[in-house]
User: Which sequence fits this backbone?
């Protein structure tokens, strides 16, 4: 590849009726300036390309990290939902068991009250029968005492 120095140091053979030396030198100077400018721009563009590639790599790394973070967040959310479902099922099961126990306790209490009521009715009947018998015997005694007067 030609360098600006190669262009500047290039010497042409002189011939009869050749080109105007000053015009050729002026043109070569202009070519050297343009070539130097083009090389400088090329070097700047190479630097920009390297920087852009570096930024792209950083963005890819960031994207990869974000995808991993998103995946972890999705997994965590799924675990939270599953845990919540399990806890809800446990709470429901416990509530069902407690409800059954309360119902059984209430039924047992009702049976106890019914048994006590039946026993009290029975005792009341016995009391009435004894009281009636006592009153009847007292009446007979009074009647007998009234007849003997």
Assistant:
């Amino acid at each position: 590849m030609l360098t600006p120095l190669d262009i500047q140091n290039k010497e042409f053979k002189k011939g009869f009726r050749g080109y105007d030396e000053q015009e050729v030198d002026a043109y070569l100077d202009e070519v050297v300036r343009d070539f130097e400018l083009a090389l400088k721009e090329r070097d700047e563009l190479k630097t920009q390309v390297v920087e852009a590639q570096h930024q792209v790599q950083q963005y890819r790394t960031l994207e990869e990290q974000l995808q991993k973070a998103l995946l972890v967040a999705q997994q965590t959310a799924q675990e939270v939902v599953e845990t919540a479902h399990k806890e809800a099922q446990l709470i429901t099961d416990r509530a069902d068991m407690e409800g059954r126990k309360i119902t059984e306790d209430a039924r047992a209490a009702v049976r106890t009250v019914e048994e006590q009521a039946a026993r009290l009715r029975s005792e009341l009947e016995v009391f009435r029968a004894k009281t009636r018998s006592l009153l009847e015997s007292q009446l007979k005694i009074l009647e007998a005492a009234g007849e003997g007067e």
User: Anything to note?
Assistant: Residues 47 and 81 are 50 Å apart (CA to CA). The chain has a mean pLDDT of 91. Residues 4-147 form one domain. The chain is about 90% helix and 0% strand.
